[in-house]
Amino acid sequence: MGKKGQVTLFVIIAIIVVAAGILIYQFVPGIKNAIGPIEENPNVYIQNCLEDDVNNFMTTISRSGGMLNPDHPYSYIGEEIDYLCYTSEYRTMCTVENPMLINQFEEEMKKALQPRIDECFDNLVTDYQRKGYDVSLRKGETFVSLVPSKLEVKMNNAVSLTKGETNNYESFSIILNNNLYELISIAYNILNWEAAYGDAYVDAYMLNDPNIRIDKIKRGDGTKIYSISERDTELEFRFASRSLVAPPGFGVV
């Protein structure tokens, strides 16, 4: 075969290889996804944009007593932890400062996340417009729900994407599966003990659930730092309490 014939043969083979590659890419989803999605689903976009923020704010708020910026803080190893039960008097039971712990946590999460939510949706509009879409965004209310076994952030933002055809998205959600609700429920029970008796017997909770760990750290001014956590995760809820404190020099009440 002459050189001209060899060149022609190589050209034909190259065309066949390229055509086969295009067909495989178009009609085999696994190959297409491995190479990379042509367009990212807006639900995935928002999930990727916000998930780290949801985790980070959840950790910060839960470790400071349910407040991003505690109203009545106690400084402990460089961190501010909210008093959830407090009295400034001696030989006096504390008063629970916020009995609606779950609701408070939800409101704090919503307040902390809202600027980032707005930023992520504004970025979504810009990025999809760069991809050639006509984008419509209607911002709605954000809801944070802390319920048994999960934390959900639901954003009632409506997004419409048009490029040839129109796809509508009426709401977006991020769900974290965890037991923070259960930890805060234990905290609420401990607060009731602090308010009624001046102290709480925490070993009972750990005997009931071996995966739960509760540390009670007593400070010199009568403050107690409670840390409620899971042994197999980094999930933790902390708060401060000052109740039934003996005057200086009188020992334990």
Structural commentary:
- The protein is α+β, with helices and mostly antiparallel strands and 253 residues long.
- It is built from six helices and twelve strands.
- The chain has helices spanning 3-27, 29-35, 42-63, 101-130, 180-197, 203-208; strands spanning 73-76, 79-86, 95-96, 134-138, 142-147, 150-155, 158-163, 165-169, 172-177, 212-218, 223-230, 236-242.
- The strands form three sheets. Strands 1, 2, 3, 10, 11 and 12 form a six-stranded mixed sheet that branches. A three-stranded antiparallel sheet has the order 4-7-8, with helices on one face. A three-stranded antiparallel sheet has the order 5-6-9.
- Strand 1 and strand 2 form a beta hairpin.
Quick structural overview:
The protein is built from 6 helices and 12 strands.
Observed structural traits:
253 residues, alpha+beta, 3 domains, 6-stranded mixed beta sheet, 3-stranded antiparallel beta sheet, 6 helices, 12 strands, 28% strand
Unreliable spans: 22-38
What is the CA–CA distance across the termini?
Answer: 106 Å
User: How much β-strand is present in the residues?
Assistant: 25-35%
Q: Major β-sheet, in short?
A: 6 strands, mixed
State mean pLDDT (0 to 100 scale).
88
Which radius of gyration do the C-alpha atoms yield? 28 Å
Q: How much helicity do the residues have?
A: 40-55%
Number of strands: 12
From the spread of the alpha carbons, the general shape counts as elongated
The secondary structure category is alpha+beta
Number of domains: 3
Sequence of secondary-structure elements: HHHEEEHEEEEEEHHEEE
Discrete helix count: 6
